[in-house]
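As a warm-up, study this chain.
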Amino acid sequence: MFKFKNFLNNDNIKVVEKKEGMRVLEYVNDLSVTPYSATTSYFASKMNVRKRQVLIELNNSEYTISAGAMQWTIGNVEMQSGVKGAGDLIGKAIKGVVTKESTVKPIYKGKGILVLEPTYRHILLEDLTEWEGGIVLDDGMFLACDSKVEQKVVSRSNLSSAVFGGEGLFNLKLQGEGIAALESFVPRDELIEIDLENDVLKVDGNFAVAWSGSLEFTVEKSSKTLMGSAISGEGLVNVYRGTGKVLLAPINGQAMNQTHGSKAPDNAGESVTNTTINGIMGMLK
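Now compare it with the structure written out below.
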């Protein structure tokens, strides 16, 4: 039996989204400030730059989270590494490198509360049953999901997609039934959702943050001829073809991440990946 106070009943903390066992909490104002940072924090809050975190209610259920994302748990909650052996660890390490996700995604199960670390990114809760063929994510978006959700690494349909598309050769794909929590550099209010039915979407740049696994992703010339592409100034474009949906951001995600900080504190996934890879390489010497 447990109780906690000054959390869900705190006027400075509000639940902005809830799906099944997941809630997204948002801090209206950042009150943990000094006299030197108070002005910055005040105006940041007015511009929707706020701390957010995910609360997961475990009711004899299991959730998989990004490595290093747990802040605290309460109740009869057990953590498992999700690694089944040395071979599985090496395979997960390789997947982590190619998708820029954490190598090991721990599994929390039992009955209680799991709270993830705060972030300044925007958190999206997605029902995977609403995504035909699953959902393919841009690099670094995964935060947590129901452990029933299947995680796969998918590759581009052709090499040109990796070389010219700005999306990388591999992406993480989530499929099945359950809810996934994703970290986005822009709020849902600014994400454009495009539904395709045997149609084609062409995007000039890395603006797609997620798309249906049923869609074919390629990189093609913006015009039928190289001359036409050169004259138009568009060159090559990312093409999503088939039936499904795409979430488009109004700004380039890679540029946003390089220009502005987005997490507080940084997710430990990438450092865990590097540590694991270095350890494996050391054992092979």
